[in-house]
Amino acid sequence: MIRRFLFIWAVVSPVCCAFSQQTVAFPYPDIPSTLVEPQERLTFVLNHFWEQYHFDDTTLSNRRIAEQGIADFLNLLNYESDSALCRRAVDAFVEKGFANEAQRGYFEQKLTHYLSNPESPLRNESVYAHFLRGIVAYLPASDAIAERSTQMLRLIGMNAVGDVATDFCFRLRDGQQKRLSDIKSPFTLLIFSDPECEHCREALPRLVAEDALKDERLSVLLVYPDSNTPHWLKVQRSLPANWWDVCSPNGEIMRSPLYHLPSLPSLYLLDARKCVLIKDGTLEQVTDALHRAKDSTP
Questions:
Q1: In the chain, which residues have pLDDT < 70?
Q2: N or C: which end of the chain has fewer CB within 10 A?
Q3: Total number of domains in the chain
């Protein structure tokens, strides 16, 4: 709570004043001096964030100003991602930003870049889903952006935290086939990876060396989700005893798709019931969760 308090105070209080001193800056709302509590100020800023921006101006310079505003707007929303305030602020933006057909593609691209790109520090599927739902509700169903938003909502809704992970068949290197549901360990870590993926090759040694991923309570599936099985078979790896090097027969995971994998490697931590604890998380998030589980065990 203290960190959140300090963040809101730092962003909402000084930012709107500091940016207003720039030569070309996003037109942030002026916060009434009567609002002194951080949450009050945050609520005011989100409710009035876009009121002074000219959405009908499609010039490049105005779009640059818009991108500055979008980044700051999303930064604030990330701290209110599950709230009614977030939903109201998102809906207000969609009604303004997607009213002009000439602007829709630009705003769609920026939202996707900031909220869905795995490399973005502002990535947040919960906030992204709010925007996608707002877009689908606002635009006609036949609109191409509405259709893409509907499809993306379906994808990011797959295997959400708290849901039972989709069961799938996998093949071991000796040709045996098993299912995810066959694994009875207290925890299962799915590492979706590709031998041809440069990021995967860079990440794998660190994953293999991590002591927390060698825990006997944990089964680790290093899963090749695509269809080039002969290539996967050629790559031989030395892995810890609790790791299984497997592939998806005929690339079912990617073909169906069964999991939304915008980038690889992608880590999913599951509990004994195969409920998703961490979705597309970092190694640090996975190890922290495992350490907390170990500390809480009587």
A1: 1-24, 297-298
A2: C
A3: 2
Distance CA 275, CA 160 (A): 9
Which H or E element spans position 269? strand 266-270
Rounded Cα gap, residues 177 and 246, in angstroms: 9
Specify the pairing of strand 187-192 against strand 218-224.
Answer: parallel
Query: Which helix (H) or strand (E) covers residue 148, if one does?
Result: helix 144-156
Q: Which residues pair with 246 in a beta bridge?
A: 223
pLDDT score at 273: 97
Which residues, in sequence order, are CB contacts of 8 under 8 Å at separation 6+?
38, 39, 41, 42, 79
pTM of the model: 0.84
149 and 176 in a single domain? The answer is no
Are residues 11 and 143 both part of a single domain?
Answer: yes
Residue 212 structure tokens? 């927390």
Q: Are 113 and 188 in a shared domain?
A: no
Residue where one domain finishes, among candidates 127, 156, 185: 156
* Residue 66 sits in the same domain as residue 176: no
User: What is the end-to-end Cα distance of the chain in Å, rounded?
Assistant: 28
Which pLDDT belongs to residue 24? 62
Distances (CA, A) of 227 to 193, 224, 245, 252: 12, 8, 15, 8
pLDDT of residue 148: 98
pLDDT computed for residue 22 by the predictor: 44
